Amino acid sequence: MPRARRLATGIYSTSMALGVGLAAGTAQPVTDHLGGWRVALSVWGVAALALVAAMIGVRATGRGMPRADGRRRRVSLPLREKRAWFVSAVYCVPMFLGFGVIAWLPSLFMEHGIGSGLAAFYLVLFQGVQLVSMLTLTPLTDRTPKRRGVFATVMLAAALGLLLLSLQPHAWALPGALLAGFGIGGASSLALVTVQDEATSPEDATRLSAMSMLLSFTAGAASPFLMGALSDLTGGLGPSFWLCFAVSAAGILLLVGMHPAERRTHSTTSFS
Predict the structure, then answer these.
(1) For the ranges 80-94, 137-151, 231-245, which has the lowest average pLDDT?
(2) Is residue 163 part of a domain?
């Protein structure tokens, strides 16, 4: 059921963005009223532990788990397949940008004279507009098999937003945050659609999603570190956001490898 899969994709992506936006919006008030950043961090640490406990409880009951048919299949990562590397690259770009911008956007604003409260508000807007793009663009792929136009829209929006934030973080804070959020959020959600387009079976989807998420979340984890290290070397966050702009511009080149979903041959061509 393609529509059910894309609906689930939208729910998954939106839930991630909503959680980050909620954390960003409450961190500063909790810090101000409950005694510092350590308390704010602890609040979300306790919430994370509660979620883990709830998931363990649900798993123990067997609810929502597929029925085992008694057969075990060995599923390996498709490391030698070109399409797997393409899907991974499509997913790595928004994850690198998303994690890096979330980590350093408020600091960029404060570095250029914007107060901490307003900087946090801009971060919430950045996350909020991601919800809009995730909720609207993913269902749009049910209506058209063409991918290049949708991906071009979000990648160009992300690149333009990051360009504004790199050039004038103070003057163009609002349009920069909104455009970057719309583009990055839409690209991260549509990257999951690309996995569905390329998969030939549920098992194949597992292999593709496992590899793409392994690489993309690694890229996402590395992004804040690289941006922070670059900031230390240069004395400011400007070059770090220029790096993000360069990554977003390079991501536009991935459009060359995209084709309409209905014309895919699902080739499993391997590297020699």
Answers:
(1) 137-151
(2) yes
